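Before our next group meeting I need something from you. Please put the record directly below this note.
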Amino acid sequence: QVQLVESGGGLVQAGGSLRLSCRASGSIVRIDAMGWHRQAPGKQRELVATITRGGITNIADSVKGRFTISRDNNKNTVYLQMNSLKPEDTAVYYCYAPIVYYSGDYLRKGDYWGQGTQVTVSS
């Protein structure tokens, strides 16, 4: 069974930092681009950052210069380093990954989301 497990959320004051981690587990063959999204109360889920398997990143304008995405392919893990946090960064953060994996003798592909981790930035 494939799953994504996130960690690292919490409460921080404005200007502070947090580092989110998301590890994929299971009979994984390959993970292509991985990403982080977030959803604030009453708002739609929005893309925060993505990173390809080769390390090419794409960062949303709203967090550019403050957030950094990285990954460790050997650990099937993606990270989101968040600096200079603002109250408007408060949201539930979700990691995402398209994963190729073995299910018995069969090779399958699915899109997976983490369970979400709460980030709260106080002013």
